[in-house]
Amino acid sequence: MLTEEQVRNALSGVIDPELGRNIVELGMVRDIVVDGPKVAFTLALTTMGCPLKDQLTEQARAAIEALAPGLQVNVQLAQMSEEDRRRLFGQQEEEESPAQHLNHVQRVVAVMSGKGGVGKSSVAALLAVAMRRKGLKVGLLDADITGPSIPRMFGLHGALHVGPFGLAPAETRTGIEVMSINLVLSAEDEAVIWRGPLISSAIRQFWTEVVWGDLDLLLLDLPPGTSDAALTVMQSIPLNGVVMVTSPQDLAGMIVRKAAHLAEELHIPIIGLVENMSYVQCPHCATRVEVFGPSQAGQTAAQMGAPLLGSLPLDPDLARAADSGEIESYAAEAFAPLADAVWERIPAVQCQPMMGRKENA
Questions:
Q1: What's the pLDDT score for residue 189?
Q2: Parallel/antiparallel/unpaired status of strands 166-167 and 162-163
Q3: Does position 131 have pLDDT exceeding 70, yes or no?
Q4: pTM above 0.85, yes or no
Q5: 4-80: CATH class
């Protein structure tokens, strides 16, 4: 007759691809019940929004069904408590890389949209430039592994230096530290054809194995969507908050609200909303033209329960500066007060530890 121990042993062969350990060891397997040919257990996820839940469920089901013919397997999904996550991720933190001992990052903010094409990377880059002009020590992590654009905007090329403690980020002309997959590829247009777990692993390495040193602020440029890459950043890096980016269309606002719901589910503060490409200003008469229609940003911000930090124009000068790697020389008068608003609203205390997060020292 099948025993609970046999079921547990079978499930220990199911590996969480993000954490690299089996689901039994991670404490994800709960309440195993064996009743003749019927086997039931609960799979406790770090969050119900986990993009790997279907994969883990099917692998667990298959592992049990392989024990004997005709087994009926019932897998119930649940979410770990804060205490469970704290215990789990405290174990993950025990083995720190040499770089982590040298890094002292005061604030970490992600720039997110959920939707592509709204100029999120431009906003992240301009935020970094504006914060550096304030005299802050700033880093910029390009977490868009399959569509990186940050190095091109800053005119960064070539191989990175690998030191005894880890990988050294590239440095821009004004002293912004930058890390991106495009800085380790042989050519900037080389495609990164990776599945989710590899992308997630690369993002974690950019956080744990890069020698960022002392930073007042690290900005993260997130890729579109709310699946693996975004979830990895929001669960494995200690974010103080997120800045959401949208464009005037209500369609963009709908997608941004999806990203906001993910941040809320993971208890990450939303610093505010930035509307990009809000208007074009005529160079001859200074008339503002709303090329994408009337702004919906106020309504979107209200639905998110977050402030509207500001609206940015669609500016050909910005496009030229980004294409030529001269974004640090772009005169963004409209951006200085927006950057001030972001800095003032960054929560002083980081949110609860999740997936390797730490409280501020």
A1: 81
A2: antiparallel
A3: yes
A4: no
A5: alpha beta
